[in-house]
Amino acid sequence: MGFVVGIFPHLFLLMNVVLL
């Protein structure tokens, strides 16, 4: 669970970069 919680913010930022 710690891995998912730690990578979630990175995925969110990555999505923002892709959208931009």
Describe the protein in words.
It is a single chain. This protein is an all-alpha fold and 20 residues long. It contains 1 helix and no strands. The chain starts with a helix and ends with a helix. The mean pLDDT is 84.
Shape: rod-shaped
SSE topology string: H
Average pLDDT over all residues = 84
Query: Can you count the beta strands?
Result: 0
**What is the terminal separation in angstroms?**
29 Å
In helices, the fraction of residues equals over 70%
- SS strand fraction: under 5%
Count of helical regions: 1
Low-confidence stretches: none
Q: Radius of gyration from the CA trace? A: 9 Å
Q: Describe the main β-sheet briefly.
A: none
State the secondary-structure class: mainly alpha
